[in-house]
Design goal:
single chain, 246 residues, mainly alpha, Penicillin binding protein transpeptidase fold, 3-stranded mixed β-sheet, disordered C terminus
Length: 246
Amino acid sequence: MTLRRPLPIRLLRLFTLLAVGWLALSWLAVLALRFVPPWTSAVMLERRAGALLHGEKDFRLRYHWVAWDQVSPYVPLAMVAGEDQKFPFHHGFDFDSIQDAVDAADEGKRLRGASTISQQTAKNLFLWNGRSFVRKGLEAYFTVLIELSWPKRRILEVYMNIAEMGDGIYGVGAASEAFFHAPPSRLGAAQAARLAAVLPSPRRYHADHPSPYVQGRANWILQQMGQLGGPAYLQGWQPPREVRHR
């Protein structure tokens, strides 16, 4: 007669198997998305569910994938200039910006974000909106997987395709058509800067009818794009120098 293992040992074994299985599946998903365009994202699913729950009958989610070589080089340049100028240098986390945000919070100043493009890609693709230690821990986990599995260009390609740029408008493909009535390959530097300028709050700001704040931020992003070296900055990811954040 075979003796059954004690319940705590069986539970520990089950938990270990589940944890290992989840780790393997999550890494396989990240590896697959290095080569396969995502058909949706967690944030898109969350927005769609929210629209259904709140009875937003006129809501329409707009998203379609556009490959890197079909997008104006000004678009990824503007996103790096406006969102994460250390993107080519860090490995997913900007510890200097994190420390600055902590210091500002300790001094009672307005809480500001310190997320990198890699972190935002991880959050938008796999997680939900909100603030909690669980979500931030998962965000860090997926950020590490993405940085280990994808080249920088792929991270930026996915980010510019899934970032929310308007209410229900996700990615540069849908945004360029909705706001500028043009394919993303034809966007100029000023239009790209306006898209990047609304990223902190895409449901509040509008790229097609920019407020004075958005236009001022877009002008600053344009200046940073020039100081980074223009579209040539994207070739090789070896910029001549780092430009200071605003």
